[in-house]
UniProtKB/TrEMBL annotation:
The keyword Transmembrane applies. It is a multi-pass membrane protein. This is Olfactory receptor. Residues 43-292 form the G-protein coupled receptors family 1 profile domain. InterPro entries: GPCR_Rhodpsn, GPCR_Rhodpsn_7TM, Olfact_rcpt, OR51/52/56-like.
Amino acid sequence: MSAVNDTKFNSAVFLLTGIPGQEEVHFWISIPFCLMYAISIVGNSVILFVIKTDSKLHDPMYIFLSMLAIIDLGISISTMPTILGIYLFISREISFEACFAQLFFIHSLQLIESSMLLLMAFDRFVAICNPLRYSSILTLTRIANMGLVFVLRSLAVIFPLPFLLKRFQYCRVNVLSHSYCLHQEVMKMACSDITVNSIYGLIITLLTVGLDSLFIFLSYVMILKTVIASHAECLRALNTCVAHLCAVLLFYMPMIGLSVAHRFGEGSPPLLQILLGYIFLLVPPLMNPIVYSVKSKHLRARIIRMFVK
């Protein structure tokens, strides 16, 4: 009994995990990770710079895109220290406080990104279904207020998580299966009853990401109903939504897969959860600036002009 008590109070760190069985080649694996982070940070920074400096890109669609770029930068910065720390053999230990802080930022930013994708869907809905009132509906003040409401919503619902985790005692081998901290995994390391955390996490997911994805789906149903009468108009309208649809799929598909794997995939291969985790956090910040740069003619032309000069 004393040994268990000692473990409870003396273990003050979690151990992060890279790719099991591949420790000898972690340095080489770090190279694609470094490239992904570099592309994510440079790509999103370029998007922000171009939108800020070009007054022609100060439309609501590009303002929402700049907000998405800020969120993606935050996600990349919040995960980079621990992921590269493991693959560059710096450290695989993370203190409880640092772990709780990291999961707070990761989950908060993920919820904010979900909300931002909803606002971008609303932007496309207004532009296609009510174009004459587009500028009067999506004013700068209204955009700022909507963004602030969703940011505060995300921070408010995630804020209790570190405190709910801090009240636990951790008496097991605190080895996490990812290179970063997630609430659904950290709570499983506790030797206490985690029912409250599990239910609260499920409620958060349903009331935020669940509702956001539902409203995004409904917005596209309304868009299709509006433009279905004209085949040419339908294709033209859907073409303006391709980039947003790609961003939605890149965000929600890995998130759903990872959630299912953590909650119901006890017998699933560990490598599957690890790969889903990396896709979930690293691919959207990497691909969003690329997709939007390719699909947005004005943005692409401005970026090319900036580098050609």
